[in-house]
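Researcher: Sequence recovery benchmark, item below. Answer with residues only.
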């Protein structure tokens, strides 16, 4: 972990690492400085560090690093400067969005760059192989390689920001903005799975917010601003869910909005409620809940009529018509007939939920049909004035279906009305929350209702009717559709009818007589009469047929015996099968028992591990509490010192439990109290300014009205003058145009002749140019063909030449490699020879040095044991040379220039002693002008001997130039 004295040093170090390409090290350095406990006090440098940190995280797609850093920075900024955290998060989201858009644009550019320029060229072999292997198109591959990683990172960014801001009352607006941007991301790129997860995340955040109510800095939903932000977020979620056609998620969003309203117990604005009921109409229509769809439309109509002052009469008429048609689309019978008790309970619970969503409070003890029913809806259409606002076609349709009795002419009168209604609808100008109304969506439900009404009325008049006649009476549906509708109606006891396809007739009855108790009463009566007749008139006893049975009795007994044997074998097989099944059940039970035992053991191990972890957490928590208690004692002492110095009372009573949290809460409460006092002063000042502004406007209103009236009179006079002037100008222009027309009418024949001549000349010119163009195209095609042939020849020649040059290069490289190997070998041999020569020369120098030492000892008159001692300490390799040197006296050589010579040697030389002749060089003759080297030179530097200008120099191991 890197340690820095100042945060500025960490920032400089990170920039240096980025400049040399080590982004990972730079990110780690900034992460260490952010998570360090030494820098818990906010400063401007930490904000700049966070900007650089999030830039690196986005550049390297490190979402976990970004989340960890933002959490640590939130701890630093929460109580000091929360705006800094907001700026950092906005910068983080901006960079992520920019990178994702950049990747998407790069993918699009890459896809455009892959377009083929030569239309005559076929696909390349590598492209075909890649498409067969991967099984995907180029765009899919580019999206997977470029776009998908950045989209994943952007989605992770939204999740991280929402997780960080979920319980922060000071950043509620940023939380709402992030949620809206995440919704738009899901909408723009059709990310349905991510949208579901996002809705679940926001839902869990609200649930945790209600669960932990005592949490500090928790958003207060009773505040109007907070409630408005949360409602706006849920309504945006509802809009995006309906646009993505995720109807289940849209219904859950509606439940979230309703739960939020129930939680706060405040009704939102009318504009939001209009959106709420408009989306409910779509959801209920998709789910085929026509009754609740109609109730939602009724609520929507009431809101629009009450609160929308800009609503035009045409738009109100369209909305009212939608309400009436939605009510008529409800099936006129209850579909719960014959359902089980469990189904009825589920239906009751579902109805309660639906009724709460549309604003009706139902008593669970009452039946839902007592409040929410089609009949109650129809009565409300009249009481709330919906029918008076609807169009005439809808009114006539309602009257025909609900009040008229026309069994033969009902369908013929309804069909033209349905044709007119299908053409009604369109966009609404003054109802922004309801952009479009289409009445044609109700046509199938209205046709079904018309069929039911016709069958109901016909069943009251007729008992039997031909199928052809009934089909002709219902022209907008085929008979198999009518049959399907009638089966459902008979099942729910709406009508009573039977269809006989063999006879081709339809038989009607009364639903009350078709009950279970009355359906078979005639059959039971006939059976009772038959029994009574049998008692009164018993049947005549017939003659015995035993004689006829005896001859065939043996065959019957044999058949019966075979049947019994077969039955016995079947029973045995069944017993064996049952025993086998029992054995299998026992084995399964044993395996189940072993599995359960294993699960129990694993659960016991987990429990023991959990207990150990719990004890460990308790110990850690106890240590943390002790440490916090010590810190609180220190803070209490400091507070007491400050209170004594300022002359105030003690901040905490003696009997209270002192904790760090208590001290911080007291300080925050003090700051909150001061802030509230300041807000009260500002509110009082704002109230005074409002009164002053209102007085000014009341004084200015009459003056403005008078000026406006004067302006109206002046503009009216000016408009009249301009209108008269325009009329006069138009009259003069019309007279001039008529004269010009009469003057030019004489040239009409000449104009036609000239036009024919020009057209014929241009036609001839066009034919000539077309022929020339075809010839030029043929020439261009021939030239392109020759050019392609020449290009192929050039490519073949270039490839051949490249292969020849490549072969020559390879031969040259092989020759150079062999030459280098040969030179290396010769160099090694020469080096070995030089080392051998050097060893011989060194041996010779040692011998000369020994001779010189013996000569000096002989001159100084030393005893003869010196050579023996020297030979003991440093033996010579050649003993014969040492013996010769000790027995033969050697004369001292003549002193050379610049060399020290002892006195006795100088006297001896001056006395006429002759120096012995120099020993001849075994490697060559020495130069006369160069004296022999002393042995001291060899002792100082044995590695650099010199043998004269014509000898060998061992400093480099190579012979000198002559």
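Model:
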């Amino acid at each position: 972990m890197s340690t820095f004295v100042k945060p500025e040093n960490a920032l400089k170090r990170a920039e240096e690492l980025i400049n040399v390409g080590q982004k990972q090290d730079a990110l780690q350095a900034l992460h260490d400085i952010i998570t360090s406990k030494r820098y818990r006090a906010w400063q401007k440098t930490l904000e700049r560090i966070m900007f650089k940190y999030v830039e690196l995280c986005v550049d390297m797609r490190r979402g976990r690093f970004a989340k960890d850093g933002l959490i640590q920075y939130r701890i630093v900024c929460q109580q000091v400067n929360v705006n800094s955290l907001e700026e950092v998060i906005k910068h983080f989201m901006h960079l992520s969005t920019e990178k994702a858009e950049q990747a998407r644009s790069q993918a699009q550019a890459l896809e455009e760059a892959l377009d083929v320029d030569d239309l005559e060229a076929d696909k390349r072999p590598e492209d075909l192989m890649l498409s067969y292997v991967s099984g995907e198109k180029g765009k899919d591959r580019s999206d997977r390689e470029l776009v998908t990683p950045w989209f994943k990172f952007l989605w992770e960014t939204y999740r991280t920001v929402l997780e960080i801001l979920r319980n922060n009352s000071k950043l509620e607006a940023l939380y709402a903005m992030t949620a809206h941007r995440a919704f738009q991301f899901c909408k723009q790129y059709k990310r349905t799975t991510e949208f579901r997860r996002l809705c679940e995340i926001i839902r869990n955040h609200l649930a945790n917010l209600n669960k932990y109510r005592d949490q500090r800095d928790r958003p207060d939903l009773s505040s109007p601003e907070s409630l408005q932000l949360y409602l706006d977020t849920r309504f945006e979620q509802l809009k995006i869910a309906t646009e993505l056609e995720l109807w289940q998620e849209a219904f859950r969003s509606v439940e979230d909005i309703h739960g939020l309203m129930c939680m706060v117990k405040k009704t939102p604005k009318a504009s939001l409620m209009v959106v709420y009921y408009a989306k409910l109409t779509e959801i209920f229509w998709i789910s085929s809940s026509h009754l609740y769809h109609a109730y939602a439309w009724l609520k929507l109509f009431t809101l629009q009529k009450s609160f929308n002052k800009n609503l035009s009469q045409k738009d109100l008429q369209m909305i009212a018509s939608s309400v009436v048609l939605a009510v008529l689309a409800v099936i006129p019978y209850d579909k719960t007939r014959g359902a089980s008790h469990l189904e009825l309970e589920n239906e009751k619970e579902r109805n309660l939920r639906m009724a709460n969503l549309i604003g009706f409070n139902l008593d669970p003890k009452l039946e839902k049909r007592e409040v929410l029913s089609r009949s109650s809806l129809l009565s409300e259409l009249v009481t709330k004035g919906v029918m008076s606002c609807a169009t005439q076609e809808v009114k006539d349709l309602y009257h025909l279906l609900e009040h008229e009795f026309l069994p033969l002419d009902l369908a013929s009168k309804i069909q033209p009305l349905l044709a007119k209604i299908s053409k009604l609808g369109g966009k609404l100008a003054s109802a922004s929350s309801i952009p479009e109304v289409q009445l044609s969506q109700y046509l199938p439900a209205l046709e079904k209702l018309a069929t039911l009404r016709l069958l109901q009325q016909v069943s009251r008049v007729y008992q039997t009717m031909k199928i052809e006649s009934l089909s002709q009476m219902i022209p907008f549906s085929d008979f198999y559709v009518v049959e399907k509708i009638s089966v459902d109606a008979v099942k729910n006891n709406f009508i009573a009818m039977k269809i006989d396809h063999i006879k081709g007739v339809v038989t009607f009855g009364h639903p009350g007589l078709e009950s279970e108790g009355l359906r078979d009463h005639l059959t039971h009566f006939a059976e009772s009469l038959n029994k009574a007749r049998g008692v009164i008139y018993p049947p005549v006893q017939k003659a015995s047929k035993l004689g006829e049975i005896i001859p065939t009795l043996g065959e019957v007994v044999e058949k019966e015996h075979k049947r019994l044997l077969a039955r016995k074998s079947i029973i045995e097989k069944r017993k064996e099968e049952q025993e086998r099944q029992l054995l299998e059940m026992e084995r399964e039970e044993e395996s189940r028992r072993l599995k359960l035992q294993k699960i129990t053991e694993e659960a016991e191990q987990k429990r023991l591990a959990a207990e150990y972890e719990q004890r460990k957490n308790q110990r850690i928590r106890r240590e943390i509490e002790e440490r916090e208690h010590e810190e609180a004692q220190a803070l209490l002492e400091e507070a007491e010192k400050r209170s004594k110095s300022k002359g105030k009372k003690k901040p905490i009573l003696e009997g209270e439990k002192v904790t760090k949290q208590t001290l911080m809460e007291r300080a925050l409460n003090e700051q909150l109290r001061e802030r509230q006092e300041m807000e009260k002063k500002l509110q009082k000042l704002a109230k005074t300014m409002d009164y002053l502004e209102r007085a000014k406007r009341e004084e200015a209103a009459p003056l403005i009205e008078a000026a406006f009236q004067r302006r109206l009179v002046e503009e009216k006079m000016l408009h009249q003058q301009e209108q008269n002037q325009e009329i006069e100008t138009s009259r003069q222009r019309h007279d001039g145009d008529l004269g010009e027309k009469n003057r030019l009418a004489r040239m009409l024949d000449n104009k036609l002749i000239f036009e024919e001549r020009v057209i014929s000349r241009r036609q001839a010119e066009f034919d000539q140019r077309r022929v020339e163009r075809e010839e030029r195209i043929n020439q261009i095609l021939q030239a392109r063909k020759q050019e392609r042939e020449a290009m192929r020849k050039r490519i073949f020649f270039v490839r051949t030449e490249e292969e020849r040059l490549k072969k020559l290069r390879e031969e040259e490289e092989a020759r150079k490699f062999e030459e280098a190997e040969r030179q290396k070998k010769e160099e090694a041999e020469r080096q070995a020879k030089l080392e051998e020569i050097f060893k011989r020369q060194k041996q010779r120098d040692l011998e000369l040095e020994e001779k010189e030492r013996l000569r000096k000892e002989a001159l100084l008159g030393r005893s003869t044991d010196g050579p023996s001692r020297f030979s003991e300490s440093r033996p010579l390799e050649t003993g014969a040379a040492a013996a010769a040197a000790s027995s033969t006296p050697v004369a001292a050589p003549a002193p050379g220039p610049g060399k020290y010579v002892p006195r006795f040697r100088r006297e001896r030389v001056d006395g006429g002693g002759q120096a012995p002749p120099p020993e001849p060089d075994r490697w060559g003759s020495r130069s006369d002008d160069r004296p022999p080297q002393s042995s001291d030179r060899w002792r100082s530097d044995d590695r650099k001997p010199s043998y004269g200008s014509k000898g060998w120099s061992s400093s480099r191991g190579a012979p000198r130039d002559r």
